[in-house]
Amino acid sequence: MAGSTHAEVPLDPPGVDASTGLGELDLRLLDFERAWAARVGAKEAAILTEFSIPPARYYQVLYALIDSPAALRHDPLLVRRLQRLRDARTRSRAARTFRTDTQDSTD
Question: What secondary structure letter does DSSP report for 52?
Fold first, then answer.
């Protein structure tokens, strides 16, 4: 279209690293999780200090992140380990929640 002008649309959203496809927060989350494996202490307090978000929101963001192909490409070992941990917690929670006792405790 000769003579028409249009604004160029960036290929990557602002704050996204073109080489990894991950945003700054995504990279910080993965770095935090990688470093945390060697640490001890109250993780919830560290999450609040580092990210200024409640731990529940942190885990929501983290779990969405580890399901992304970009995160898997960036650090496959870490992401697979986090997926295994998440899946084990989910199975454990489901086993506790849906357990039915077949015997009456009053017998």
Answer: S
Q: How far apart are CA 71 and CA 27, in angstroms?
A: 9
By CB atoms closer than 10 A (0-12, 13-18, 19+), residue 70 is: middle
> Is residue 21 classed as helix, strand or coil in its secondary structure?
coil
CA–CA dist 107, 105 (Å, integer): 6
Cα–Cα dist 51/29, whole Å:
9
- Least Cα distance to 83 among 68, 66, 69 occurs for 66
88/98: higher pLDDT? 88
DSSP line for 85-106: HHHHHHHHHHHHHT----S-TT
**Residue 2 Cα distances to 5, 6, 8, 9, 90, angstroms:** 9, 11, 16, 19, 57
Give 21 or 31, the one with higher predicted confidence.
31
The reported pTM is 0.70
Nearest of 34, 28, 85 to residue 52 by alpha carbon: 28
